[in-house]
Amino acid sequence: MNTGSLVTGGGEQQPCRSPVGGATVVGMTRVLVAFASKMGSTKEIAEAIGDRLTERGCAAEVRSAETVDSVDGYDAIVLGSAVYATRWRREAIQFLRRHRDRLTAGRTWLFESGWLGQRPSALVASPGGRRRANKVGAPAPVVFGGRLDLDLATGRMDRMLAKRMAGDARDWDEIKSWADQVADTLVTRRT
Ligand SMILES: Cc1cc2nc3c(=O)[nH]c(=O)nc-3n(C[C@H](O)[C@H](O)[C@H](O)COP(=O)(O)O)c2cc1C
Fold it and tell me: How many domains does the chain have?
């Protein structure tokens, strides 16, 4: 089991340790990274977050939101949804409905992925995303850029938009850095 600290970029970082056990490390923090993705780009963001949390010493599991029957056994939850027509994917909405009672403030993080083209000057989460964050006591969802690829688009609307707006606006450094913030919070929230 990896409970050692991780050295990256020349500096020693705190590992993502269990939130229980005080100063004594009793086990790795188990984090579920659930995602709702139609054309795969949000899934890849979730995987990048999972990889980073793992590098930081968490036991991160990345799963499609609709396959998660129970969140018992996880110390923290990250949920991400692609945004279509300003709305979250249904699987993400249902995930929150299903597990709302088990999600705790300070241990739940949300992200959305969507915008394409030029980076908007203000990145504001969708109204539904903000409302749902509020309901589970999580911070407003962080907003990442998305990807649209004509080869992966099957529906008529998706293909129409992909013909006009294909591109990849995901910023992997930004995504990694957000995952670091989650890991940092898990370290500092140790009691
Ligand atoms: C038909 C359609 C509607 C979309 N609507 C939005 C939207 O309202 N807001 C947004 O930020 N992105 C929107 N997008 C961009 C997608 O969210 C983006 O391509 C995302 O990365 C797709 O994620 P996925 O590959 O995980 O399904 C839309 C894309 C399509 C094809």
Answer: 1
| Stated pTM of the model | 0.89
What's the domain range around 127? 27-188
CA of 151 to the centre of ligand 1 (A): 15
Instruction: Tell whether ligand 1 has an atom less than 6 A from the beta carbon of residue 126.
Output: no
Cα dihedral 42, 15, 29, 24, rounded to 10, equals: -170
What is the rounded average pLDDT of the residues 154-180?
96
Give me the mean pLDDT over the 72-91 stretch: 97
Which among 86, 91, 148 is the best mutation to test ligand 1's pocket, defined by most ligand atoms within 8 Å of the CB? 148
| Position 169 in a domain | yes
* Three-class DSSP labels, 35-87: EECCCCHHHHHHHHHHHHHHHCCCEEEEEEHHHCCCCCCCCEEEEEEEEECCE
CATH of the domain at 63: 3.40.50.360
Quote the distance between the C-alpha of residue 39 and its chain's center. 16
Residue 4 belongs to a domain? no
Q: In this structure, is residue 42 part of a structural domain?
A: yes
